[in-house]
Amino acid sequence: MNKDQVAEVLGKIAVLLELKGENPFKTRAYVNAARLLETLNEPLEKVIAENRLPTLKGIGEALQQKITELMATGKLAYYEELKASTPPGLVAMLDIPGLGPKKVKMLHDELSISSVEQLERACQEGTVADLKGFGEKTQANILAGIARRRTYASRHLLYDVLPLAEGLLDQLRQHPEVVRCGSAGSLRRSREIVGDIDLLASSRHPREVIDDFTALPGLLSVIARGDTKASVLLEGGVQCDLRVVSDAEFASALMYFTGSKEHNIVMRQRAIERGLRLNEYGLFRSKEETRDPSLRVPCATEEEIFQALGLHYVPPEMREDLGEFEVAAAGPVPRLIEWTDLKGSLHNHSTWSDGRQTPADIARSMSELGLAYWGVTDHSKASFQANGLTVARLHEQIREVREINDALARDGHEFRLLTGTEVDVLKDGSLDFPDEILAELDVVIASVHQAFKATEAEMMERILGVVRNPYVHILGHLTGRLLLEREAYLVDQRAIIDACAENGTWIELNASPSRLDMDWRLWPYAKSKGVKCVINCDAHRFEHAGYLRLGAGMARKAGLTRDDVVNTWPLEKLKQALTQKRRRAGKL
Hints:
With 588 residues, the chain is an alpha/beta fold. The protein has 24 helices and 15 strands.
Protein backbone atom coordinates (compact mmCIF):
# COMPACT_ATOMS: atom_id res chain seq x y z
CA MET A 1 0.00 0.00 0.00
CA ASN A 2 1.03 3.62 -0.47
CA LYS A 3 0.16 6.54 1.78
CA ASP A 4 -2.88 7.57 -0.30
CA GLN A 5 -4.36 4.09 -0.01
CA VAL A 6 -3.71 4.08 3.74
CA ALA A 7 -5.38 7.48 4.05
CA GLU A 8 -8.40 6.16 2.17
CA VAL A 9 -8.79 3.26 4.59
CA LEU A 10 -8.53 5.57 7.60
CA GLY A 11 -11.24 7.78 6.10
CA LYS A 12 -13.50 4.78 5.63
CA ILE A 13 -12.92 3.75 9.24
CA ALA A 14 -14.06 7.21 10.36
CA VAL A 15 -17.33 6.81 8.44
CA LEU A 16 -17.97 3.36 9.88
CA LEU A 17 -17.29 4.56 13.43
CA GLU A 18 -19.73 7.44 12.95
CA LEU A 19 -22.41 5.03 11.77
CA LYS A 20 -21.88 2.98 14.89
CA GLY A 21 -22.31 6.05 17.09
CA GLU A 22 -18.76 5.93 18.42
CA ASN A 23 -17.17 8.75 20.40
CA PRO A 24 -16.83 11.73 17.99
CA PHE A 25 -13.29 12.39 19.21
CA LYS A 26 -12.29 8.90 18.12
CA THR A 27 -13.87 9.45 14.72
CA ARG A 28 -12.16 12.82 14.32
CA ALA A 29 -8.78 11.22 15.08
CA TYR A 30 -9.11 8.99 12.00
CA VAL A 31 -10.26 11.89 9.84
CA ASN A 32 -7.28 13.99 10.92
CA ALA A 33 -4.87 11.11 10.39
CA ALA A 34 -6.17 10.55 6.86
CA ARG A 35 -5.75 14.25 6.01
CA LEU A 36 -2.25 14.26 7.46
CA LEU A 37 -1.14 11.34 5.30
CA GLU A 38 -2.67 12.90 2.17
CA THR A 39 -0.46 15.96 2.62
CA LEU A 40 2.68 14.18 3.81
CA ASN A 41 5.63 15.55 1.84
CA GLU A 42 7.68 12.34 1.84
CA PRO A 43 7.13 8.60 1.39
CA LEU A 44 5.24 7.04 4.29
CA GLU A 45 7.46 3.96 4.21
CA LYS A 46 10.45 6.20 4.89
CA VAL A 47 8.72 7.77 7.90
CA ILE A 48 7.91 4.31 9.26
CA ALA A 49 11.41 2.95 8.61
CA GLU A 50 12.95 5.88 10.51
CA ASN A 51 10.48 5.40 13.37
CA ARG A 52 9.10 8.92 12.92
CA LEU A 53 5.40 8.08 12.97
CA PRO A 54 5.15 9.06 16.68
CA THR A 55 6.42 12.54 15.80
CA LEU A 56 3.49 13.25 13.46
CA LYS A 57 0.82 15.42 15.04
CA GLY A 58 -2.26 13.44 16.10
CA ILE A 59 -0.82 9.98 15.37
CA GLY A 60 -1.09 8.13 18.67
CA GLU A 61 0.06 4.63 19.48
CA ALA A 62 -3.11 2.90 18.22
CA LEU A 63 -2.99 4.73 14.89
CA GLN A 64 0.73 4.03 14.56
CA GLN A 65 0.06 0.31 14.85
CA LYS A 66 -2.77 0.41 12.29
CA ILE A 67 -0.82 2.48 9.76
CA THR A 68 2.21 0.20 10.11
CA GLU A 69 0.03 -2.89 9.66
CA LEU A 70 -1.57 -1.46 6.52
CA MET A 71 1.77 -0.57 5.00
CA ALA A 72 3.32 -3.91 5.86
CA THR A 73 0.48 -6.25 4.88
CA GLY A 74 -1.94 -4.22 2.77
CA LYS A 75 -4.68 -5.23 5.19
CA LEU A 76 -5.98 -4.15 8.58
CA ALA A 77 -7.82 -6.59 10.79
CA TYR A 78 -9.56 -3.77 12.69
CA TYR A 79 -10.95 -2.32 9.45
CA GLU A 80 -12.06 -5.72 8.15
CA GLU A 81 -13.88 -6.45 11.42
CA LEU A 82 -15.50 -3.02 11.41
CA LYS A 83 -16.60 -3.50 7.81
CA ALA A 84 -17.94 -6.98 8.48
CA SER A 85 -20.03 -5.73 11.41
CA THR A 86 -21.55 -2.84 9.40
CA PRO A 87 -24.16 -3.57 6.73
CA PRO A 88 -22.72 -2.09 3.51
CA GLY A 89 -26.06 -0.52 2.66
CA LEU A 90 -25.75 1.86 5.61
CA VAL A 91 -22.87 3.67 3.94
CA ALA A 92 -24.86 3.95 0.71
CA MET A 93 -27.77 5.51 2.64
CA LEU A 94 -25.54 8.42 3.62
CA ASP A 95 -25.68 9.63 0.00
CA ILE A 96 -29.38 10.46 0.41
CA PRO A 97 -29.88 14.16 1.27
CA GLY A 98 -31.01 14.72 4.84
CA LEU A 99 -29.71 11.40 6.15
CA GLY A 100 -26.71 11.71 8.42
CA PRO A 101 -25.05 8.92 10.42
CA LYS A 102 -27.36 9.39 13.43
CA LYS A 103 -30.54 9.00 11.38
CA VAL A 104 -29.12 6.07 9.43
CA LYS A 105 -28.22 4.40 12.73
CA MET A 106 -31.74 4.99 14.04
CA LEU A 107 -33.30 3.53 10.90
CA HIS A 108 -31.15 0.45 11.31
CA ASP A 109 -31.71 0.08 15.06
CA GLU A 110 -35.47 0.73 15.04
CA LEU A 111 -36.60 -0.73 11.69
CA SER A 112 -33.73 -3.09 10.82
CA ILE A 113 -33.14 -1.16 7.58
CA SER A 114 -29.76 -1.96 6.10
CA SER A 115 -30.04 -0.93 2.44
CA VAL A 116 -31.42 1.82 0.24
CA GLU A 117 -33.94 -0.63 -1.20
CA GLN A 118 -35.27 -1.53 2.27
CA LEU A 119 -35.42 2.15 3.14
CA GLU A 120 -37.47 2.90 0.04
CA ARG A 121 -39.95 0.11 0.86
CA ALA A 122 -40.29 1.31 4.46
CA CYS A 123 -41.00 4.85 3.26
CA GLN A 124 -43.57 3.61 0.75
CA GLU A 125 -45.26 1.66 3.56
CA GLY A 126 -45.25 4.73 5.80
CA THR A 127 -43.27 3.23 8.69
CA VAL A 128 -40.39 5.71 8.54
CA ALA A 129 -42.71 8.65 9.24
CA ASP A 130 -43.61 7.11 12.63
CA LEU A 131 -40.03 7.29 13.89
CA LYS A 132 -39.16 10.09 16.32
CA GLY A 133 -37.48 12.93 14.50
CA PHE A 134 -38.70 11.89 11.04
CA GLY A 135 -42.38 12.49 10.14
CA GLU A 136 -44.28 12.57 6.86
CA LYS A 137 -42.24 15.38 5.34
CA THR A 138 -38.91 13.71 6.02
CA GLN A 139 -40.25 10.43 4.68
CA ALA A 140 -41.35 12.13 1.44
CA ASN A 141 -37.98 13.86 1.15
CA ILE A 142 -36.17 10.54 1.55
CA LEU A 143 -38.22 8.99 -1.26
CA ALA A 144 -37.51 11.98 -3.49
CA GLY A 145 -33.81 11.77 -2.60
CA ILE A 146 -33.67 8.07 -3.50
CA ALA A 147 -35.29 8.82 -6.86
CA ARG A 148 -32.80 11.60 -7.56
CA ARG A 149 -29.92 9.38 -6.51
CA ARG A 150 -30.91 6.81 -9.08
CA THR A 151 -31.25 9.35 -11.86
CA TYR A 152 -28.34 11.66 -11.22
CA ALA A 153 -24.77 11.35 -10.04
CA SER A 154 -23.96 13.31 -6.89
CA ARG A 155 -20.50 14.43 -7.97
CA HIS A 156 -19.72 16.88 -10.73
CA LEU A 157 -16.69 18.41 -12.40
CA LEU A 158 -16.04 21.98 -11.33
CA TYR A 159 -16.02 23.13 -14.95
CA ASP A 160 -19.52 21.75 -15.50
CA VAL A 161 -21.11 23.60 -12.59
CA LEU A 162 -19.33 26.95 -12.97
CA PRO A 163 -21.55 28.23 -15.81
CA LEU A 164 -24.68 27.06 -13.99
CA ALA A 165 -23.69 28.97 -10.86
CA GLU A 166 -22.70 32.08 -12.77
CA GLY A 167 -26.01 32.11 -14.62
CA LEU A 168 -27.95 31.99 -11.37
CA LEU A 169 -25.74 34.65 -9.78
CA ASP A 170 -26.42 36.93 -12.75
CA GLN A 171 -30.14 36.54 -12.06
CA LEU A 172 -29.66 37.30 -8.36
CA ARG A 173 -27.56 40.39 -9.06
CA GLN A 174 -30.40 41.82 -11.12
CA HIS A 175 -32.98 41.25 -8.38
CA PRO A 176 -34.04 44.59 -6.84
CA GLU A 177 -34.17 43.14 -3.32
CA VAL A 178 -30.68 41.58 -3.37
CA VAL A 179 -27.96 43.68 -1.73
CA ARG A 180 -25.01 41.29 -2.19
CA CYS A 181 -24.64 37.75 -3.49
CA GLY A 182 -21.95 35.21 -4.28
CA SER A 183 -21.05 31.55 -4.47
CA ALA A 184 -19.87 29.56 -1.46
CA GLY A 185 -18.92 25.99 -0.62
CA SER A 186 -16.54 23.82 -2.62
CA LEU A 187 -17.34 25.80 -5.76
CA ARG A 188 -15.91 29.01 -4.29
CA ARG A 189 -12.91 27.07 -2.99
CA SER A 190 -12.25 25.73 -6.52
CA ARG A 191 -12.41 22.07 -5.57
CA GLU A 192 -11.95 19.97 -8.69
CA ILE A 193 -15.05 17.90 -7.81
CA VAL A 194 -18.16 19.47 -6.27
CA GLY A 195 -21.29 17.91 -4.88
CA ASP A 196 -23.67 20.81 -5.33
CA ILE A 197 -23.79 24.59 -5.75
CA ASP A 198 -24.04 26.84 -2.69
CA LEU A 199 -25.20 30.41 -3.26
CA LEU A 200 -25.61 33.18 -0.71
CA ALA A 201 -27.47 36.49 -0.91
CA SER A 202 -28.33 39.31 1.47
CA SER A 203 -31.68 41.08 1.46
CA ARG A 204 -34.24 42.86 3.62
CA HIS A 205 -36.96 40.76 1.99
CA PRO A 206 -35.62 37.19 1.81
CA ARG A 207 -38.97 35.53 1.08
CA GLU A 208 -39.39 37.58 -2.09
CA VAL A 209 -35.90 36.60 -3.24
CA ILE A 210 -36.60 32.92 -2.50
CA ASP A 211 -39.95 32.98 -4.32
CA ASP A 212 -38.45 34.52 -7.44
CA PHE A 213 -35.42 32.21 -7.34
CA THR A 214 -37.57 29.07 -7.27
CA ALA A 215 -39.61 30.41 -10.19
CA LEU A 216 -36.62 30.90 -12.51
CA PRO A 217 -36.88 29.19 -15.90
CA GLY A 218 -34.72 26.15 -16.54
CA LEU A 219 -35.08 24.51 -13.11
CA LEU A 220 -35.85 20.81 -13.25
CA SER A 221 -37.61 20.89 -9.90
CA VAL A 222 -37.83 22.64 -6.54
CA ILE A 223 -36.60 20.25 -3.87
CA ALA A 224 -37.35 22.44 -0.85
CA ARG A 225 -38.41 26.02 -0.19
CA GLY A 226 -38.60 28.04 3.01
CA ASP A 227 -38.51 31.68 4.06
CA THR A 228 -34.72 32.02 3.82
CA LYS A 229 -33.51 28.89 2.03
CA ALA A 230 -34.34 26.99 -1.13
CA SER A 231 -32.94 23.92 -2.87
CA VAL A 232 -33.49 23.35 -6.58
CA LEU A 233 -32.40 20.79 -9.15
CA LEU A 234 -30.62 22.06 -12.24
CA GLU A 235 -29.72 20.53 -15.58
CA GLY A 236 -27.38 17.58 -15.28
CA GLY A 237 -28.73 16.68 -11.85
CA VAL A 238 -26.84 19.43 -10.03
CA GLN A 239 -28.48 20.57 -6.82
CA CYS A 240 -28.26 24.26 -5.92
CA ASP A 241 -28.93 25.65 -2.44
CA LEU A 242 -29.62 29.35 -1.91
CA ARG A 243 -29.53 30.99 1.50
CA VAL A 244 -30.67 34.56 2.06
CA VAL A 245 -29.42 36.46 5.13
CA SER A 246 -29.41 40.03 6.37
CA ASP A 247 -26.60 42.18 5.03
CA ALA A 248 -25.13 42.46 8.54
CA GLU A 249 -24.75 38.67 8.51
CA PHE A 250 -23.49 38.37 4.94
CA ALA A 251 -19.71 38.40 5.55
CA SER A 252 -19.81 35.79 8.33
CA ALA A 253 -22.32 33.64 6.45
CA LEU A 254 -20.15 33.77 3.33
CA MET A 255 -17.12 32.68 5.36
CA TYR A 256 -19.05 29.93 7.14
CA PHE A 257 -20.68 28.42 4.06
CA THR A 258 -17.50 28.71 2.00
CA GLY A 259 -15.70 26.44 4.48
CA SER A 260 -13.89 24.18 4.49
CA LYS A 261 -15.11 22.62 7.71
CA GLU A 262 -11.52 22.21 8.86
CA HIS A 263 -10.72 25.85 8.09
CA ASN A 264 -13.83 26.99 9.97
CA ILE A 265 -12.89 24.99 13.06
CA VAL A 266 -9.57 26.85 13.31
CA MET A 267 -11.26 30.21 12.77
CA ARG A 268 -13.80 29.53 15.52
CA GLN A 269 -11.02 28.47 17.88
CA ARG A 270 -9.10 31.69 17.20
CA ALA A 271 -12.25 33.63 18.07
CA ILE A 272 -12.66 31.74 21.35
CA GLU A 273 -9.03 32.45 22.27
CA ARG A 274 -9.86 36.16 21.94
CA GLY A 275 -13.02 35.99 24.03
CA LEU A 276 -15.23 36.04 20.94
CA ARG A 277 -17.66 33.73 19.19
CA LEU A 278 -17.71 33.22 15.41
CA ASN A 279 -20.60 31.54 13.64
CA GLU A 280 -22.65 31.91 10.48
CA TYR A 281 -24.49 34.90 11.98
CA GLY A 282 -21.44 37.02 12.81
CA LEU A 283 -18.50 37.63 15.11
CA PHE A 284 -19.75 38.34 18.65
CA ARG A 285 -18.32 39.67 21.90
CA SER A 286 -19.46 36.71 23.93
CA LYS A 287 -18.14 33.66 25.72
CA GLU A 288 -21.19 31.64 24.70
CA GLU A 289 -22.77 30.86 21.35
CA THR A 290 -25.10 33.68 20.37
CA ARG A 291 -26.66 35.62 17.52
CA ASP A 292 -27.57 38.68 19.60
CA PRO A 293 -27.14 41.70 17.27
CA SER A 294 -26.18 43.94 20.20
CA LEU A 295 -23.05 41.80 20.75
CA ARG A 296 -21.98 41.66 17.10
CA VAL A 297 -18.55 43.01 16.14
CA PRO A 298 -19.24 45.07 12.98
CA CYS A 299 -17.59 43.26 10.06
CA ALA A 300 -18.87 44.21 6.65
CA THR A 301 -16.40 41.97 4.81
CA GLU A 302 -14.48 38.75 5.28
CA GLU A 303 -11.27 40.80 5.35
CA GLU A 304 -12.51 42.52 8.51
CA ILE A 305 -13.27 39.19 10.17
CA PHE A 306 -9.78 37.90 9.43
CA GLN A 307 -8.32 41.14 10.76
CA ALA A 308 -10.34 40.90 13.96
CA LEU A 309 -8.88 37.43 14.51
CA GLY A 310 -5.28 38.55 13.99
CA LEU A 311 -4.91 37.30 10.44
CA HIS A 312 -4.37 38.69 7.00
CA TYR A 313 -7.03 37.81 4.43
CA VAL A 314 -6.96 34.24 3.11
CA PRO A 315 -8.34 33.83 -0.44
CA PRO A 316 -11.21 31.33 -0.49
CA GLU A 317 -9.37 28.82 -2.69
CA MET A 318 -6.78 28.26 0.06
CA ARG A 319 -9.19 27.64 2.94
CA GLU A 320 -8.49 23.96 3.55
CA ASP A 321 -6.47 24.16 6.81
CA LEU A 322 -3.39 23.08 4.87
CA GLY A 323 -0.94 25.78 5.90
CA GLU A 324 -2.87 28.95 5.10
CA PHE A 325 -3.04 30.05 8.75
CA GLU A 326 0.73 30.06 9.17
CA VAL A 327 1.05 32.21 6.04
CA ALA A 328 -1.75 34.62 7.01
CA ALA A 329 -0.43 35.05 10.56
CA ALA A 330 3.09 35.89 9.38
CA GLY A 331 2.10 38.57 6.87
CA PRO A 332 -0.10 39.31 3.88
CA VAL A 333 -0.75 36.26 1.70
CA PRO A 334 1.28 36.78 -1.50
CA ARG A 335 -0.78 37.89 -4.46
CA LEU A 336 -1.99 34.68 -6.05
CA ILE A 337 -1.97 34.15 -9.78
CA GLU A 338 -4.93 35.46 -11.80
CA TRP A 339 -5.97 33.83 -15.04
CA THR A 340 -5.43 37.17 -16.75
CA ASP A 341 -1.71 36.85 -15.87
CA LEU A 342 -1.41 33.96 -18.33
CA LYS A 343 -0.01 34.85 -21.74
CA GLY A 344 -0.64 31.57 -23.50
CA SER A 345 -0.70 27.78 -23.26
CA LEU A 346 2.19 25.51 -24.28
CA HIS A 347 0.26 22.23 -24.68
CA ASN A 348 -2.40 22.28 -27.41
CA HIS A 349 -3.48 20.35 -30.49
CA SER A 350 -4.36 21.27 -34.05
CA THR A 351 -5.90 19.55 -37.07
CA TRP A 352 -2.52 17.96 -37.66
CA SER A 353 -3.52 15.40 -34.99
CA ASP A 354 -6.84 15.41 -33.11
CA GLY A 355 -7.49 19.14 -32.76
CA ARG A 356 -10.28 21.08 -34.49
CA GLN A 357 -8.38 24.20 -35.63
CA THR A 358 -5.59 24.66 -38.14
CA PRO A 359 -2.45 26.42 -36.90
CA ALA A 360 -3.48 29.50 -38.92
CA ASP A 361 -6.91 29.53 -37.25
CA ILE A 362 -5.26 29.09 -33.86
CA ALA A 363 -2.94 32.02 -34.45
CA ARG A 364 -5.81 34.27 -35.46
CA SER A 365 -8.22 33.30 -32.66
CA MET A 366 -5.66 33.29 -29.83
CA SER A 367 -4.22 36.61 -30.98
CA GLU A 368 -7.72 38.07 -30.91
CA LEU A 369 -8.03 36.91 -27.28
CA GLY A 370 -5.04 39.10 -26.46
CA LEU A 371 -2.63 36.23 -25.79
CA ALA A 372 1.06 36.52 -26.64
CA TYR A 373 1.84 32.93 -27.76
CA TRP A 374 0.38 29.47 -28.19
CA GLY A 375 2.16 26.13 -28.42
CA VAL A 376 1.20 23.76 -31.24
CA THR A 377 2.17 20.44 -29.68
CA ASP A 378 0.42 17.65 -31.52
CA HIS A 379 0.63 13.98 -30.66
CA SER A 380 3.47 11.74 -31.82
CA LYS A 381 2.91 8.66 -33.99
CA ALA A 382 2.34 6.18 -31.14
CA SER A 383 -0.96 7.95 -30.39
CA PHE A 384 -2.39 6.54 -33.61
CA GLN A 385 -5.94 6.94 -32.30
CA ALA A 386 -5.26 10.70 -32.22
CA ASN A 387 -3.70 10.81 -35.70
CA GLY A 388 -0.23 11.22 -34.21
CA LEU A 389 2.49 12.72 -36.40
CA THR A 390 5.33 10.88 -38.07
CA VAL A 391 8.74 12.58 -38.32
CA ALA A 392 7.97 13.65 -41.89
CA ARG A 393 4.62 15.18 -40.95
CA LEU A 394 6.18 16.94 -37.97
CA HIS A 395 8.72 18.57 -40.30
CA GLU A 396 5.89 19.73 -42.55
CA GLN A 397 4.10 21.23 -39.55
CA ILE A 398 7.24 23.02 -38.39
CA ARG A 399 7.53 24.66 -41.81
CA GLU A 400 3.86 25.72 -41.71
CA VAL A 401 4.15 27.24 -38.23
CA ARG A 402 7.28 29.18 -39.23
CA GLU A 403 5.52 30.53 -42.32
CA ILE A 404 2.62 31.69 -40.16
CA ASN A 405 5.00 33.41 -37.74
CA ASP A 406 6.82 35.10 -40.66
CA ALA A 407 3.50 36.45 -41.93
CA LEU A 408 2.58 37.70 -38.45
CA ALA A 409 5.91 39.52 -38.20
CA ARG A 410 5.49 41.14 -41.61
CA ASP A 411 2.05 42.41 -40.58
CA GLY A 412 3.40 43.86 -37.37
CA HIS A 413 1.71 41.36 -35.01
CA GLU A 414 3.55 40.38 -31.83
CA PHE A 415 1.68 37.09 -31.32
CA ARG A 416 3.65 33.92 -32.14
CA LEU A 417 3.01 30.21 -32.41
CA LEU A 418 5.58 27.86 -30.85
CA THR A 419 6.59 24.64 -32.59
CA GLY A 420 6.39 21.57 -30.43
CA THR A 421 5.10 18.09 -29.71
CA GLU A 422 3.38 16.09 -27.01
CA VAL A 423 5.66 13.12 -27.42
CA ASP A 424 4.54 9.74 -26.10
CA VAL A 425 6.49 7.97 -23.37
CA LEU A 426 6.62 4.41 -24.69
CA LYS A 427 6.35 1.23 -22.64
CA ASP A 428 10.12 0.78 -22.50
CA GLY A 429 10.66 4.36 -21.29
CA SER A 430 11.93 5.69 -24.61
CA LEU A 431 10.35 8.64 -26.38
CA ASP A 432 8.36 8.38 -29.59
CA PHE A 433 10.66 10.85 -31.40
CA PRO A 434 14.49 10.74 -31.41
CA ASP A 435 16.39 13.49 -29.62
CA GLU A 436 17.61 15.06 -32.86
CA ILE A 437 13.99 15.74 -33.86
CA LEU A 438 13.07 17.08 -30.41
CA ALA A 439 16.03 19.44 -30.62
CA GLU A 440 14.39 21.23 -33.56
CA LEU A 441 11.30 22.21 -31.55
CA ASP A 442 10.58 25.22 -29.36
CA VAL A 443 8.80 23.19 -26.67
CA VAL A 444 8.59 19.47 -25.87
CA ILE A 445 6.02 17.89 -23.57
CA ALA A 446 6.37 14.22 -22.65
CA SER A 447 3.24 12.34 -21.59
CA VAL A 448 2.22 8.78 -20.77
CA HIS A 449 -0.68 7.56 -22.90
CA GLN A 450 -0.25 3.80 -22.67
CA ALA A 451 0.50 0.89 -20.30
CA PHE A 452 -1.35 2.52 -17.38
CA LYS A 453 -1.43 -0.76 -15.47
CA ALA A 454 2.33 -1.01 -15.14
CA THR A 455 3.71 -1.43 -11.64
CA GLU A 456 4.84 1.64 -9.73
CA ALA A 457 8.48 0.63 -10.18
CA GLU A 458 8.02 0.25 -13.94
CA MET A 459 6.16 3.55 -14.24
CA MET A 460 8.76 5.37 -12.17
CA GLU A 461 11.59 4.05 -14.34
CA ARG A 462 9.79 5.27 -17.47
CA ILE A 463 9.01 8.74 -16.14
CA LEU A 464 12.30 9.41 -14.37
CA GLY A 465 14.18 8.69 -17.58
CA VAL A 466 12.02 11.22 -19.42
CA VAL A 467 12.49 13.87 -16.74
CA ARG A 468 16.27 13.60 -17.15
CA ASN A 469 16.12 13.98 -20.93
CA PRO A 470 17.64 17.40 -21.79
CA TYR A 471 15.23 17.85 -24.71
CA VAL A 472 12.05 17.48 -22.61
CA HIS A 473 10.86 20.78 -21.15
CA ILE A 474 7.58 19.70 -19.54
CA LEU A 475 6.19 16.55 -17.97
CA GLY A 476 2.55 16.31 -19.08
CA HIS A 477 -0.46 15.26 -16.94
CA LEU A 478 1.66 13.55 -14.32
CA THR A 479 -0.69 10.79 -13.10
CA GLY A 480 -2.91 10.19 -16.13
CA ARG A 481 -6.05 10.50 -14.01
CA LEU A 482 -9.45 11.33 -15.49
CA LEU A 483 -11.67 12.72 -12.76
CA LEU A 484 -14.80 10.61 -12.12
CA GLU A 485 -13.61 8.23 -14.85
CA ARG A 486 -10.13 6.80 -14.34
CA GLU A 487 -7.85 6.54 -11.34
CA ALA A 488 -4.27 7.76 -11.46
CA TYR A 489 -1.64 5.22 -12.40
CA LEU A 490 0.82 4.13 -9.72
CA VAL A 491 3.59 6.67 -9.33
CA ASP A 492 5.53 8.36 -6.52
CA GLN A 493 4.74 11.97 -7.35
CA ARG A 494 7.11 13.50 -4.82
CA ALA A 495 10.05 11.47 -6.12
CA ILE A 496 9.23 12.71 -9.62
CA ILE A 497 9.03 16.28 -8.35
CA ASP A 498 12.47 15.84 -6.79
CA ALA A 499 13.84 14.58 -10.11
CA CYS A 500 12.28 17.51 -11.97
CA ALA A 501 13.95 19.88 -9.51
CA GLU A 502 17.32 18.25 -10.12
CA ASN A 503 16.99 18.35 -13.91
CA GLY A 504 15.23 21.66 -14.52
CA THR A 505 12.10 20.01 -15.92
CA TRP A 506 8.79 21.83 -15.55
CA ILE A 507 5.56 20.10 -14.56
CA GLU A 508 2.27 20.69 -16.24
CA LEU A 509 -0.93 21.66 -14.49
CA ASN A 510 -3.15 20.27 -17.21
CA ALA A 511 -6.27 22.44 -17.05
CA SER A 512 -8.52 20.13 -19.02
CA PRO A 513 -11.57 19.79 -16.69
CA SER A 514 -11.30 16.03 -16.31
CA ARG A 515 -7.55 16.10 -15.60
CA LEU A 516 -6.41 19.07 -13.47
CA ASP A 517 -3.21 17.10 -13.11
CA MET A 518 -0.76 17.57 -11.30
CA ASP A 519 -3.12 17.75 -8.33
CA TRP A 520 -3.22 21.05 -6.40
CA ARG A 521 -2.21 19.30 -3.18
CA LEU A 522 1.25 18.55 -4.60
CA TRP A 523 2.12 22.01 -5.89
CA PRO A 524 3.22 23.49 -2.53
CA TYR A 525 5.82 20.72 -2.35
CA ALA A 526 6.89 21.34 -5.94
CA LYS A 527 7.18 25.04 -5.23
CA SER A 528 9.36 24.34 -2.19
CA LYS A 529 11.69 22.38 -4.48
CA GLY A 530 11.84 25.18 -7.04
CA VAL A 531 9.90 23.31 -9.73
CA LYS A 532 8.03 25.61 -12.10
CA CYS A 533 4.41 25.13 -13.10
CA VAL A 534 3.01 25.38 -16.63
CA ILE A 535 -0.76 25.88 -16.80
CA ASN A 536 -1.76 24.23 -20.07
CA CYS A 537 -5.16 24.00 -21.74
CA ASP A 538 -4.45 20.76 -23.64
CA ALA A 539 -6.78 22.54 -26.06
CA HIS A 540 -8.37 20.75 -28.99
CA ARG A 541 -10.64 23.61 -30.06
CA PHE A 542 -10.98 27.36 -29.64
CA GLU A 543 -13.35 27.13 -26.65
CA HIS A 544 -10.75 25.25 -24.66
CA ALA A 545 -8.76 28.44 -24.22
CA GLY A 546 -11.22 29.04 -21.37
CA TYR A 547 -9.47 26.28 -19.46
CA LEU A 548 -6.82 28.85 -18.56
CA ARG A 549 -9.23 30.23 -15.99
CA LEU A 550 -9.87 26.77 -14.53
CA GLY A 551 -6.15 26.02 -14.32
CA ALA A 552 -5.48 29.36 -12.63
CA GLY A 553 -8.11 28.49 -10.03
CA MET A 554 -6.28 25.25 -9.23
CA ALA A 555 -2.97 27.13 -9.06
CA ARG A 556 -4.51 29.67 -6.67
CA LYS A 557 -5.75 26.79 -4.54
CA ALA A 558 -2.16 25.57 -4.35
CA GLY A 559 -0.98 29.03 -3.29
CA LEU A 560 0.95 29.69 -6.50
CA THR A 561 1.86 33.20 -7.59
CA ARG A 562 2.59 34.63 -11.02
CA ASP A 563 6.31 33.98 -10.51
CA ASP A 564 5.68 30.25 -10.02
CA VAL A 565 4.05 29.80 -13.44
CA VAL A 566 6.22 30.05 -16.56
CA ASN A 567 3.47 30.94 -19.02
CA THR A 568 2.95 34.25 -17.27
CA TRP A 569 6.32 35.27 -18.73
CA PRO A 570 6.64 37.40 -21.87
CA LEU A 571 7.66 35.54 -25.02
CA GLU A 572 11.36 36.46 -25.00
CA LYS A 573 11.81 35.40 -21.38
CA LEU A 574 9.95 32.17 -22.07
CA LYS A 575 12.14 31.39 -25.09
CA GLN A 576 15.29 31.98 -23.06
CA ALA A 577 14.00 29.64 -20.34
CA LEU A 578 13.14 26.97 -22.91
CA THR A 579 16.78 26.87 -24.06
CA GLN A 580 18.19 26.85 -20.53
CA LYS A 581 17.78 23.12 -19.85
CA ARG A 582 19.53 22.15 -23.09
CA ARG A 583 22.28 24.68 -22.50
CA ARG A 584 22.83 23.32 -18.98
CA ALA A 585 23.16 19.81 -20.41
CA GLY A 586 25.62 21.04 -23.03
CA LYS A 587 23.22 20.40 -25.89
CA LEU A 588 23.36 23.95 -27.27
